[in-house]
C-alpha cells in the first residue's frame, strides 16, 4: 500500500499516455521518460490506466505492467492512483490487488464497460468493489464519455454507504461539477479532468484538483501554484497559454489520443506510434500539433 492518505490528494495530477513502439508494444523507455517529465514539471500526483492510457486496448497483463512501471518510476514521491478497468466485480478486485501490491495510494473505479444499467446496479457494483480494499476509492463519473453515470444525489448515497469511497473523479463542465460539490455538501473531494478546460474556474468552485494528460501539464501546474498563492492573474495567464491546445485536443477521447499524445511527444522529443484501431492524424492536425508545440515550448524535467 502507498504512503499517502487522501488528505494529500490535491492539485494537478498527471495521467500517463500509453506510449507504444513501432510494433505497437508498450515502450518502456518512453513511459519512464513521461513520468520523469511529469514529476519534473511539478505534478502533485501520478495516475495511469484511465481513458488517456487507452486502457481498453491493453491486455490484463499489460495493465499490470503499466502499474509496475509507473509505480517504479514514481518511487512514492507523490500520491499514485490507478484507474480500475474491468467488466466484473472479480476482474476489478483482481486489478486492485495488483495496485495494492505495487504501492498505489488510491484507486479510481470506472463503471463496467458491458451493458447499460440503472443507478442501483452501479451503486451495488461500486460498493462491492470498494469493500474489497482498504485504499481510498474514487468513482469516475463521466457520463459524456461512458454513456452512463450517477447523479449527484446517487453519488451522495453511495459515499454515505461506503466510507472508503472518499473522492469523485468527474469529467464535466464547471457548472455540473459545482452542482455535484453542492449536492454532496462539500463532504466528498472532487477532481475534474477534461484536459484542463475551465481550469481556473474548477479551482474557484472548490475542486480539490485536476487529473490531466501531460501535454500541457507544466502550464497547469504553474496555474494551480499561482491560484493557490492568491495570484489569480498569474493563474489566468498560464491558463490562457494552454487553452487553445487544450480545446484542440479535447474534441473527444479519440482526438485526445491522436493529437494530445502527439502534442506531448512533440514537446518531449518522444516519437509517437499508434496501436490499432486508432484515429490517424491528418495533415492539418499535424500542422496544428507542431504550431502548438512551438508556442508552448519544450517539456523538460527541470
Order of helices and strands: EHEHEHEHEHHEHEHEHHHH
Number of helices: 12
Radius of gyration: 18 Å
Structural class: alpha/beta
What general form does the structure show? globular
**CATH architecture tag:** Alpha-Beta Barrel
Tally of individual domains: 1
Features:
302 residues, alpha/beta, TIM Barrel, eight-stranded parallel β-barrel, 12 helices, 8 strands, 12% strand
Describe the SSE topology.
Blueprint: E1 11-15, H1 28-40, E2 45-48, H2 60-74, E3 80-84, H3 89-101, E4 106-109, H4 119-130, E5 137-141, H5 143-146, H6 152-161, E6 165-170, H7 174-183, E7 190-192, H8 199-204, E8 209-212, H9 217-228, H10 232-249, H11 253-268, H12 283-296
Parallel strand pairs: 1-2, 1-8, 2-3, 3-4, 4-5, 5-6, 6-7, 7-8
Helix pairs in contact: 1-2, 3-4, 4-6, 9-10, 10-11, 10-12, 11-12
Question: In summary, what is this structure?
Answer:
This protein has helices at 28-40, 60-74, 89-101, 119-130, 143-146, 152-161, 174-183, 199-204, 217-228, 232-249, 253-268, 283-296, and strands at residues 11-15, 45-48, 80-84, 106-109, 137-141, 165-170, 190-192, 209-212.
